[in-house]
Design brief:
Largest sheet of chain A: 7 strands, mixed
Largest sheet of chain B: 6 strands, mixed
Oligomer: heterodimer
Structural class of chain A: mainly beta
Structural class of chain B: mainly beta
Helix content of chain A: under 10%
Radius of gyration of chain A: 13 Å
Order of helices and strands of chain A: EEEEEEEEEEE
Distance between the termini of chain B: 41 Å
Shape of chain A: globular
Distance between the termini of chain A: 37 Å
Number of strands of chain A: 11
Strand content of chain B: over 45%
Number of helices of chain A: 0
Helix content of chain B: under 10%
Chain lengths: 112, 108
C-alpha cells in the first residue's frame, strides 16, 4: 500500500528557533498533502492543505506566517514552524490522498 | 459545519469481551466515513471507508457499519493487541474531519 514518510519522528527545540518537518510520498505522486495537529486526547485538527506548485490553503485561526508550508515537488511537502514557542508543542501529522487518505507517522514537537 | 462525536471516550474490555464503538456525525453531503486505528505516538492507520447507509465492512475482529447518522465499529472477541485509539472521520469536502477518538484497552 501507499506509504507517506515523515521526518523527524520527534524534535526538541528552544523557544524562538525554527523547526522543519518533512513529509514524503513514497512510490506515488501527491499533488495535495494535508497537515494536521493533534494535542493530547484531542482529535486531529486540519491546519492547512498544501498543493504542489502553489500556495498552501490555511484553516481559520492558523497563522500562515508561523507555519510555513512548501510543496515544491510531487513527492515532498514541508512544514516549518517559525519562532516556535512552548504552546506550539504538539503532534504534527501529514497526509496524502492515495489508497484513501494515507498518513505519515507523525512528528512530536517539544518547544522548551 | 461538520461534526463528529465519538463515544465512549475510553473503553476497557477483558480479552474476548465483544463491544461496539460509536461515531455520530452531522455533515452536509457525506463523501465517505473513515475508521482509523492510532497507536501512541504514531500516525493513524487506515481500517475502513464506508460510503452509504447500510454498508458494512469487516477485517479480522473488526466490523464497521453505517447509517445516515452514525457508524459503529464492532469488535468481536478482542485481544490485547487491539488496544489503541480508534478514530472516526468524515469526508465532505477535501480533507477529513476527525472525532476525538475512543481509547480502547483490552486486558488479558
Amino acid at each position: 500500500g501507499a506509504v507517506v514518510s515523515q521526518h523527524p519522528s520527534w524534535v526538541i527545540c528552544k523557544s524562538g528557533t525554527s523547526v522543519k518537518i518533512e513529509c514524503r510520498s513514497l512510490d506515488f505522486q501527491a499533488t495535495t498533502m494535508f497537515w494536521y495537529r493533534q494535542f493530547p486526547k484531542q482529535s486531529l485538527m486540519l491546519m492547512a492543505t498544501s498543493n504542489e506548485g502553489s500556495k498552501a490553503t490555511y484553516e481559520q485561526g492558523v497563522e500562515k506566517d508561523k507555519f510555513l508550508i512548501n510543496h515544491a515537488s510531487l513527492t515532498l511537502s514541508t512544514l516549518t514552524v517559525t519562532s516556535a514557542h512552548p504552546e506550539d508543542s504538539s503532534f504534527y501529522i501529514c497526509s496524502a490522498i492515495e489508497d484513501g487518505y494515507t498518513f505519515g507517522s507523525g512528528t512530536r514537537l517539544t518547544v522548551v | 459545519e461538520d461534526q463528529v462525536t465519538q463515544s465512549p471516550e475510553a473503553l476497557r474490555l477483558q480479552e474476548g469481551e465483544s463491544s461496539s464503538l460509536n461515531c455520530s456525525y452531522t455533515v452536509s453531503g457525506l463523501r465517505g466515513l473513515f475508521w482509523y486505528r492510532q497507536d501512541p505516538g504514531k500516525g493513524p492507520e487506515f481500517l475502513f471507508t464506508l460510503y452509504s447507509a447500510g454498508e458494512e465492512k469487516e477485517k479480522e475482529r473488526l466490523k464497521a457499519t453505517l447509517t445516515k447518522k452514525e457508524s459503529f465499529l464492532h469488535i468481536t472477541a478482542p485481544k490485547p493487541e487491539d488496544s489503541a485509539t480508534y478514530l472516526c472521520a468524515v469526508h465532505s469536502g477535501y480533507a477529513l474531519n476527525f472525532g476525538k477518538g475512543t481509547s480502547l484497552l483490552v486486558t488479558p
